[in-house]
Amino acid sequence: MKEIYLAGGCFWGMQQFFDQFDGVVKTEVGYANGPTADPSYQDVCASSGHAETLRIGYDPEKIALTQLLDFYFMVIDPLSYNRQGGDTGIQYRTGIYYTDEADLPEIRTVYAREEKKAGAPLAVELKPLENFYSAEAYHQKYLEKNPGGYCHIPRRMMHLQDGTAGGTEEA
Questions:
Q1: Helix (H, G, I), strand (E, B) or coil at 95
Q2: If you compute the radius of gyration of the chain from its CA atoms, what whole number of angstroms results?
Q3: What angle do CA 124, 125, 127 make, to 5 degrees?
Q4: Which of the following is catalytic: 6, 7, 10, 76?
Q5: How far apart are CA 90 and CA 87, in angstroms?
Q6: Is 61 exposed, middle or buried (CB count within 10 Å of its CB: 0-12, 13-18, 19+)?
Q7: Which residues contact 136 (CB under 8 A, 6 or more apart)?
């Protein structure tokens, strides 16, 4: 199993979105690349400097890193700085945080393609993972437990894998 860490705004929707794909073995929401150890949600909301981030454990035999990154760019605004949807603040910044230097060429290829498509420098951080702290239990699989919860990712995007994507209903 391999890992990648993706910050894409509110982590509730990111988790539900990535849980749908074959090859994604495990997801966990947490706080990454901040200056202090073991922050609470309240700390993060008070601009601690951590990003709401999704840890993705995946089987590279079933899903490629490039596929995961393609999906990631489908659900974020890569030009938005410290904001996704209605959420604003440093904790909602976007970022690709890697733990294996060998993944960097693939990441850079997708990043460069997305930057060319956008026609502007991306606001997506591309850095090694400095730290990751698991979010509180109530945040894990939050939208499964609270289906009406807010998310910047349209609900139709939560059903790409099963082929039932459709409509324009927002989460």
A1: strand
A2: 15
A3: 150
A4: 10
A5: 10
A6: exposed
A7: 40, 41
Those residues whose C-beta lies under 8 Å from the C-beta of residue 72, and which sit 6 or more positions away, are 6, 8, 96
- Give the CATH number of domain 2-159: 3.30.1060.10
Distance CA 23, CA 13 (A): 18
Clarify whether 151 is annotated catalytic. no
Q: What is the pLDDT of residues 8-29, one digit of tens each?
A: 999 999 999 999 999 999 999 9
Residue 162 has what pLDDT? 67
The Cα-based distances of 69 to 94, 126, 136, 158 in angstroms read 12, 12, 26, 16
Residue ranges per domain, the chain?
2-159
pTM of the model: 0.93
- Write out pLDDT tens, residues 79-128: 999 999 999 999 999 999 999 999 999 999 999 999 999 999 999 999 99
